[in-house]
Amino acid sequence: MNNYDVIKKARAAGRNTLTEAESKNILKEYGVPVVEEAAVFSVDAAVAAAERIGYPVVLKGLGARLTHKTEKGLVHLNLQDHEQVLAAAVIIVKGAGEDLAGFLVQPMVAGKREFVAGLFCDPLFGPVVMFGLGGIFTEALGDAMFRVAPISDGQAGMMLDELRSRALLGPFRGEERARRQQLIQTITGLSRLGMEQPEITEVDINPLLIRPDGSVCAVDALIVLGERPAAAAGRPPVKTEHIARIFHPHAVAFIGASGQPGKWGHLLLTDLVTGGYEGEIYLVNAKGQDIAGRKVYPSIAAIPGKVDLGVVTLPAAQVRELIPKFKAKGIKYVLLISSGFSELGEEGRELERGLVKAAAAAGIVILGPNTMGIINPHRKLYCTGTPVWPRAGSIGLVAQSGNLGTQLLAFAEREGIGIRAFSGSGNEAMITIEDYMYSFETDDLTKTVVLYIESIKDGRRFFNAARRVAKKKPVIVLKGGRTAAGNRAAASHTGAMASNIKIFNAACRQTGVVIAEQPMDLLDLSAAFSSLPLPQGKRVAMLTLGGGWGVVATDLCVESGLEVPHLTDDVMAEIDKILPPYWSRSNPVDLVGQFDSALSLRVLETLVKWDQCDAVIHLGAVGRAYFVSNMVKAVATADPNFPKEFLTLGQEREAAGETAFYEKSAKLMEKYGKPILGVILLEDENTKTVTDVPGSPYKG
Prior knowledge:
This protein is α/β, with parallel strands linked by helices. It contains 22 helices and 27 strands.
């Protein structure tokens, strides 16, 4: 009987679970190594099977309803002879009652290491495979990895390598290393099963035992049948060209323009004008009075020219009636600032659904609602309620939070980090995070994608978009709603529940998306990715002004999965010519208190050109301005007659040394294609995350 027939027969009988024997037969077909066993249907047959298999054996009750056999006393281990098998069978018959369909007879499998593997169906992402530490520590330690199906051999291997308990997969207390290919085969087999058998909703393999010889064996297994969770209805994709036109309007009309400072209808206008927007601006207000010296039109129809983008700040209840007016005027794109839609609950969701239906029928694309606005510095389009005007650059930024978007934009402006485009995506009634990702994928000006996400509407589409985009350019994500309380806040904020964070993080790791843990991480990562070349591997070389920093940095690198290789003889010989003989002679390279920036630069270049490293970190090579300033202050205070020109010269030399360090770092990155990252000794009021270097594509 094939897998389809087994499942069909079980469903016809009204069963939602397969027996252990049926479950293992299906898993075996998908490459999962299962224990050799005999399914029998009488006590005498159980004894005969035990004699054939050879003692010691395990005897289990078999039946579709017997899903928690150990707790019910239906599993008997280490039976040594036929008398013990008979005695165990009697107990099982009595304990299982009418639910007993037969017996399973298995050899007693030895092994000190237990793992667990399984499959379940996530409402957003679909089939998800789990692998983790089993036995009594499964729930206590929660050491499990997840991946969204389909899963490649390489991704399955990463799951094994990411376990905190991965040492148990190596040689352990006299037992051989676990057979890695069998474990990978188990994970990918579950993945294929999840993709090919839609009637299977859950698989539980516990324990997955590692034998003393390293072989892998599924000792117990359960397959659950049923209807998979229905995925939320995804939004129809919005074409990339439509999104591009929203961010490149030749004429903008503000519907709900206001002359009162602080109101959205005034903030958006003043920010757009201040940013230098060069297109036509039309103001619409039923009162018709002039605003900021500009003519105000009483209606959309009264606007004399063509309009590409309508910016709406009217109350939610008044928005739908604008759709036929937009259609009549030929306005195909709407930036809907107004709140009062799905973020307020079912009544708001219904209002939003009606608006989207009307807009789609009219051929109109809405960005929002409940958005803080958009920015495209390349067109001097600064249409947000926040007075920030970051310069044009290469970071594509989307935030499902207005406040966080404001913080990101202010940081970018202060640090001189260029923005390709920004959108406060709001409730994403029509344009979703996935639509933005596909747009950034094909946009040549976008080099880095930065996202703040509280919820996603279509997990599969997000997964596919992330996988495609991350292959071409860095994608950095900060996920809001990682806890139960955070989920509730996200629902009230954006009108949709956030996905399970473990599954979301697994999808990100699987697709190559970089996960930020907090807002400042997102800012720092975006600055780094937009300013530095990408490393080609995970080997890191370091130079440090002090040994302690090097120790801490080494620990952090190793804990993050990076490698800190030993210096080769040729590199040590080169550094011997630069530093005193008592230098550390190891990676990290301790500068042994040498404050001369010229020496630091020579060591830096030696490490950058080293073929055994992919990135260089310098710790404290710059950032002494604070100390020099205080030293000058101390000297001047203690000795008022000390020549001031010498003190000034010291400060100037320090500043010049740091400038030279940044310039040389940029040139080295350009020459060798390796990133150079720095930890400043001490920040002052002039410190920036990145420092411009004229004439270089990279920043110090």
